[in-house]
Amino acid sequence: MSSVIDAISGRYAWLIVVALLGIGLWAALTERHLIKKLVGLSIFQTAIFLFYIEGSVRTGGEVPVIDPALGSDPEAYVNPLPHVLMLTGLVVAVAVLGVALALAVVIQRSFGTLDDEELSAEADQP
Amino acid sequence: MITESTSLLPPLLPAGMLAAAIVAAAIGSRWPGAARWLAVAATLAGTIACAIGLSQVIGGQTLVAALGGWAQPLGIAQRFDALSGFIATLVCFIGLLVVLYPPGIGFQTPPDRRLPVHALVLLLLAGLLGVAMAADLFNLFVFLEIYSIAAYSLIALGGPLGAVAAFRYLVIGTIGSGLYLLGVGFVYFTTGTLSMADASDKLGTVGPTATVTTAVVLMVVGLATKMALFPLHVWLPDAHSHAPPAAAALLASVQVKVAAYAIVRIVFDVVPDDVLAAFPLLAIITWAGVGGVLFGSVMAIRQTDFKRMLAFSTVAQLGYIGIGIGLDTPLALVGALLLVLNHAFMKGTMFFVAGNVYEATGRKTIAAFAGLGRRMPWTMTGFTIAAASMIGLPPTAGFFSKFYLVLGAAEAGDTGTPWSWVVAIVVAASSILTLTYFVPVLEAIWFKPDPDGEDAPTREVRSLAVLPVAVLAVGLLVIGLLNVSIVNDLLNPIAVSISGTRG
Question: Rounded to an integer, what distance in angstroms lies between the CA atom of residue A37 and that of residue B171?
């Protein structure tokens, strides 16, 4: 029993990432309201960012600016690269979300609804 | 022997296209005409630069640029070899025809002339060129998203239903690139590198662990979503049928092919052999391709709207490309690469034809094409050549790509791939399905009476709108006639280098 607790407590960050990925994917694919789909999409993307950030953590690691007291030992610092990658990832995600919200505005103005099934019914009309 | 030499071409091509996109966006609202000619100049320069670069690397050379002076694996590199050069030249050339095509054709209500249409096309091309030349896993993701954002916006120009299709594509496309990014994360945390070449070496020493296999599956599933490989194609029919015709021509001709190219890069350049041997990834891609060919063809037969039929036909054609990648023999890869080229020309022609017909007559359904052969002889001759190629009639280009795919399936059967004879039969027999959905169109065009009466005036569209159709249709005949030299001098070395670097 204690081994199960150890396994979970050592990996709880990964479990949270997996849970968020699942929640986001589920919402993005199954929600009927387009804005709720976008919320799901954002949760999904955030889970990926957390995955990278979690991977960069080193126990006892310092801010990755070389400190004379610690020297140039890479193990003494948190890995900075995933943070930089995710900065780019965030920019990409914001840009995609911006386009998505603009599309949602166009859809609302044209059809007066943001319900996915009502939009499908509209599309089937000649 | 592969030699590398330093060149600024690989970063400058996407960067130049991006710069042109920014300038076009800045001037486009006031001078749309100037933005258009800037786009023509940029794509023409890109086509010439890619063709010159391709002629230099055809002997197995690679042009590499280390950005900021940091060589790989520490820095980010852009790479231009024969495969990237082939894709990049095709991207620029189709881009040139798309920007030459008169803007505003094929719309119910033409979009506001101040919208940055040309800037979006240039942004899309910049992203596609960036993917074609990326030698870095994360850079590939960034360029993937750049072209996707441009694609969502271009599809939304097709009216309110286009916006709905673009939104649904955006949700699925973003999930796809998210899965790819997740896979890249697994690779990075396993190997500590993002360089494709370095990651390949290090994954080779790690071997087929569960982490590595998960990483590969995530990356390939993500890219297959972008490529619209069956059964991940769900976004494509709506997106391509509601997009403006010129945008649809660009998306169907080159955008989905670039995602297919990314799969080839990942599977053959990054994933080590023992991982491919431990997990039936290639077999899954093959059978997904077979499913796509059958599903896409059957759905295309059931359509009444011309552009929607073309979109489902794209799903089928992407299935052939999947089969070529999955069989992983030199001949099958030649077939897939030749189909990338042919399909760009065939589907490009057909979407331009759809635009011309809508512009001249306002007709959209297949039945309404009746009598157009007499009224729009040039456009319809172009369509007929493209349809013959799609069905696979010699001497058009389409015959040869299917021919090589069947040979590739036979070759795979010789080297012990199970059930590859079924693949060969599906490829050969699917010509009948293709025939089934193109014959009604051809019959309507040439043999059915025009609903507007027999003496309705000839209404060919502007010559600038016929030009891309003519160029592509003639190109299909040229590719067909020159296919031996194209295959021997260009595609076969590429295919051998792809599958020759392995086991």
Answer: 8
Q: Say which CATH number the domain at A51 has.
A: 1.10.287.3510
Domain limits at A6?
2-124
Distance CA B245, CA B434 (A): 21
Cβ count near A1 (within 10 Å): 5
pLDDT at A4 over 70: no
Structure-model confidence comparison of residues B363 and B112, the more confident one: B363
Of B166, B174, B185, which has the smallest distance from its Cβ to A41's Cβ?
B174
Answer yes or no: is pLDDT of B228 > 70.
yes
The minimum CA-CA distance between B397 and chain A, rounded to whole Å, is 36
Tell me whether residue B410 is in a domain.
Answer: yes
What are the distances in angstroms from CA B412 to CA B58, B282, B324?
A: 26, 12, 10
Alpha carbon of B368 to those of B305, B338, B365, B433, B437: distances in Å? 10, 33, 5, 22, 15
Mutation for B interface: A48, A54, A79, A111, most B CBs within 10 A: A48
Which residues in chain A are contacts of B185 at CB distance < 8 A? 48, 51-52, 55, 82
Contact A100 B178 (CB under 8 A): no
d(CA B74, CA B135): 12
pLDDT of residue B1: 43
Distance, in Å, from the CA atom of A81 to the CA atom of B138, rounded to the nearest integer, reads 11
Global pTM exceeds 0.90: yes
Reference B82, options B503, B500, B502, B390; nearest CA is B500
The answer to whether B142 contacts chain A (CB < 8 Å) is yes
Structure tokens belonging to residue B252: 């169907």
Structure tokens at B129: 């060129």
Residue type, B289: G
- Checking if the pLDDT of B224 tops 90, the result is yes
* Residue ranges making up the domain that contains B494: 280-503
